[in-house]
């Protein structure tokens, strides 16, 4: 059917309160709006105010809808996103988030959209939307192996999942029906174990995700068969509902001149370096490491002898344990060879520069996509959520090298950092991995392929609108 013959849809987007989630929801909103559909993007006032500016030609198709976050005594004033809090306050943010139910329900009653796409957290939302005859999809901004690790939704909801100790997450789950070693390790299994347990918000992440899955007509997921078919197929089998891959949604390198004052000096420095010689180092905004581990990373970069560009931003929430001081005299000693960049940096532009030859990353899914788009070998240092599994998949496919860690506490030494970098950049194994990573850019950087996925996932929304509106 030609676009002009189709009825334009009204689609509500409702991400979890973390910018690592909000940004992929914005990106997907823009892609949907480009097809002539109307978006209502719902979040809290301060998050909406912190969104990147919408392109002028789409601004009229994307309504930004602010619903105030209920005040909770345990949260700091004005905290509306994970970057405004420390880890111990996460459950309180989830509790406040649950308080958005009445505001969102009113909005849905008044506007009666065709679809609502939401994140893992609002366990109450599918029922509300179903009652109003609104079609519902869980938009999973992370990949299939992470979601498949949670298992069948019914067990997540009932709490009958029998995995109760870290060891249970250190092997592939019993429903995995293909050969893989992908699993958590002792130092990062704790995150998954906690996700299975009820906490101060009153609900476990397992329960939230389970409810969201069973209440949805479909799961849309940022994944593609060309990179990894097995976990994606497993998800369909586990969940008995359409699993629609949106592709990897590789971002476009923006030509935003208003940020040139930041990019130009960085580019000038990269221009002076040899092709493929620089390691780009960035652990993401929400990973905080201890002072001791920061020192080891710095010394490791120094010991490696490799040129580097390190984005090291102070966490927005400072505590005594994350002061982020570099070792004494570090910047003088590495001067000329290494740059420590302490504010926002245009990651995608840096990764696209030909001097960059490797990416030391915490292994967030977006970072992996951005690194492999340009065929960069990854040197991985995962911490929480999906990062450990991502790192193991990357290692299994020989696209990256995980820095050796202490199994118990996940600590690493300057020597393990330096050795991993040298292995990646100079040794034969590194060369082999580099070739494979470069090859991978044909999938990750394939705009045609991912545009096709986007087209198909939007066609899915167009063709599967809820018909039974008289509940
Ligand atoms: C996706 O759809 C757009 C029209 O909305 C079209 O221009 C584009 O070529 C399509 N992409 C692919 C890969 O088919
Ligand atoms: C069992 C469990 O994960 N408990 C956690 C609940 O949340 C608090 C912080 O809000 C943690 O300190 C507990 O470890």
Word description of this protein:
The protein is an alpha/beta fold and 471 residues long. Helix content is 41%, strand content 13%. It has helices spanning 19-33, 45-49, 56-59, 90-98, 101-111, 125-131, 144-150, 153-158, 186-195, 205-214, 230-239, 260-271, 291-304, 330-333, 347-351, 365-373, 387-396, 414-426, 428-444, 447-463; strands at 10-14, 38-43, 62-66, 115-118, 135-140, 218-221, 243-245, 278-282, 308-311, 338-341, 356-361, 377-380, 400-402. It has a 7-stranded parallel beta sheet with strand order 3-2-1-4-5-6-7, sandwiched between helices. Strands 10-9-8-11-12-13 form a 6-stranded parallel beta sheet, sandwiched between helices. Helix 14 links the parallel strand 9 and strand 10. Helix 16 crosses helix 19 (428-444). Residues 35, 448, 451-452, 455 line the site of one 2-acetamido-2-deoxy-beta-D-glucopyranose.
SSE arrangement:
Blueprint: E1 10-14, H1 19-33, E2 38-43, H2 45-49, H3 56-59, E3 62-66, H4 90-98, H5 101-111, E4 115-118, H6 125-131, E5 135-140, H7 144-150, H8 153-158, H9 186-195, H10 205-214, E6 218-221, H11 230-239, E7 243-245, H12 260-271, E8 278-282, H13 291-304, E9 308-311, H14 330-333, E10 338-341, H15 347-351, E11 356-361, H16 365-373, E12 377-380, H17 387-396, E13 400-402, H18 414-426, H19 428-444, H20 447-463
Parallel strand pairs: 1-2, 1-4, 2-3, 4-5, 5-6, 6-7, 8-9, 8-11, 9-10, 11-12, 12-13
One 2-acetamido-2-deoxy-beta-D-glucopyranose binds at residues 88, 91, 194, 197, 199-200.
């Amino acid at each position: 059917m030609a676009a002009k013959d189709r009825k334009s849809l009204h689609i509500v987007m409702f991400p979890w309160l973390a910018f690592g989630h909000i940004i992929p929801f914005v990106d997907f909103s823009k892609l949907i709006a480009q097809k002539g559909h109307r978006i209502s993007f719902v979040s809290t006032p301060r998050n909406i105010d912190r969104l990147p500016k919408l392109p002028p030609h789409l601004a009229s198709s994307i309504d930004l809808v602010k619903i105030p976050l209920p005040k909770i005594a345990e949260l700091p004033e004005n905290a509306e996103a994970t970057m405004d809090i420390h880890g111990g306050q996460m459950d309180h943010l989830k509790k406040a988030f649950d308080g958005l139910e009445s505001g969102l329900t009113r909005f849905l009653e008044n506007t009666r959209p065709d679809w609502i796409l939401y994140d893992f957290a609002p366990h109450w939302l599918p029922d509300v939307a179903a009652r109003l005859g609104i079609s519902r999809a869980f938009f999973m901004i992370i990949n299939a192996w992470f979601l498949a690790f949670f298992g069948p939704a019914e067990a997540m909801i009932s709490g009958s999942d029998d995995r109760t100790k870290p060891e249970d997450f250190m092997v592939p789950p019993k429903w995995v029906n293909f050969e893989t070693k992908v699993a958590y390790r002792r130092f990062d299994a704790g995150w998954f174990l906690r996700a299975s347990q009820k906490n101060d918000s009153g609900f476990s992440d397992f329960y939230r995700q389970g409810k969201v899955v069973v209440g949805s007509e479909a799961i849309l997921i940022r994944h593609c068969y060309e990179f990894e078919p097995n976990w994606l197929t497993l998800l369909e089998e586990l969940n008995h509902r359409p699993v629609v891959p949106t592709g990897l949604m590789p971002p476009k390198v923006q030509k935003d001149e208003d940020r040139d004052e930041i990019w130009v000096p960085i580019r000038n420095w990269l221009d002076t370096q040899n092709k493929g010689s620089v390691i780009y180092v960035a652990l993401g905004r929400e990973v905080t490491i201890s002072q001791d581990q920061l020192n080891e990373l710095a010394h490791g970069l120094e010991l490696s002898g490799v040129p580097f560009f390190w984005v090291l931003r102070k966490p927005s929430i400072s505590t005594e344990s994350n002061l982020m001081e570099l070792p004494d005299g570090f910047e003088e000693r590495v001067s000329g060879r290494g740059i420590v960049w302490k504010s926002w940096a245009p990651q995608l532009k840096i990764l696209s520069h030909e001097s960059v030859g490797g990416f030391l990353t915490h292994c967030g899914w977006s970072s992996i996509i951005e690194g492999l788009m340009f065929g960069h070998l990854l040197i991985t240092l995962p911490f929480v959520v999906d990062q450990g599994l991502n790192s193991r998949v990357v290692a299994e496919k020989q696209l990256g090298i995980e820095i050796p860690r202490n199994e118990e506490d996940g600590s690493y030494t300057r020597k393990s950092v330096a050795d991993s970098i040298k292995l990646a950049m100079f040794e034969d194994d590194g060369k082999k991995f580099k070739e494979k990573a470069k090859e991978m850019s044909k999938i990750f950087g394939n705009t045609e392929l991912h545009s096709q996925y986007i087209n198909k996932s939007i066609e899915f929304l167009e063709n599967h609108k809820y018909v039974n509106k008289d509940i």
